[in-house]
Design brief:
Blueprint: H1 8-18, H2 25-54, H3 76-87, H4 92-99, H5 102-106, H6 110-144, H7 155-172, H8 180-200
Helix pairs in contact: 2-7, 3-6, 7-8
């Protein structure tokens, strides 16, 4: 009869089985809250990405800082707009740090200056997060188009994709300032125009 050598992992598992750990109600509630907020954040990020693409920021390289030689495809002015959108979502403390002038920041303590640098780095990271979402969509479009990148797709295909993204935005809108039904109908009419033009070629 062969005997199996007990491993460290086996012993640890036996120890755990002897005294099962118990999650408190507070822990379970926090877990559920994290999942719920995560789903809400994911949906919000998806909606924001739809709008960014609809506004023309449809390449992952549009989210790279123009201050570096990194293959970026956005201007300093365009990147500044992305920064504004991110900073608007920050706390008042972080906004005050970032919106202060350079001359004012020179008079700050080392701790406050460090906090400003950290906040600035977070802005860049958040912009890159949006770029990563666009990059995943690019990869998906590349697979679906048989290898043609998003920038290399035919113009009518890019327009069609952007129009479809706008429809998604409208359908997920919670407080639209326009008639969503009419807007979607107009966009679908534009899509039919594209199909009609292609059929006539």
């Amino acid at each position: 009869m062969s005997s199996k050598k007990q491993t460290t992992g086996d012993k640890a598992m036996m120890d755990h089985n002897m005294t099962n750990r118990v999650l408190t109600d507070k822990t379970l509630t926090k877990m559920a809250e994290a999942v719920r907020l995560g789903k809400k954040a994911d949906k919000a990020a998806g909606n924001a990405t739809d709008l960014l693409i609809a506004n023309g920021f449809d390449s992952s390289t549009d989210y790279l800082s123009p201050d570096r030689d990194n293959g970026h495809t956005c201007t300093a002015e365009e990147y500044a707009q992305l920064r504004v959108g991110v900073i608007m979502g920050f706390s008042k403390v972080q906004r005050d740090l970032l919106e202060a002038s350079k001359d004012e920041a020179k008079t700050w303590t080392k701790t406050r200056k460090k906090a400003r640098r950290a906040a600035s780095m977070e802005v860049g990271a958040k912009i890159q997060d949006f770029g990563a979402k666009v990059k995943r969509r690019e990869a998906k479009a590349d697979r679906e188009s048989g290898g043609a990148g998003s920038r290399n797709r035919p113009l009518d295909q890019r327009v069609r994709d952007n129009l479809n993204d706008v429809i998604k935005v409208c359908q997920n809108a919670e407080e639209a300032t326009f008639d969503v039904t009419d807007m979607v109908a107009t966009i679908k009419h534009a899509l039919r125009m594209l199909d009609t033009t292609k059929a006539e070629e």
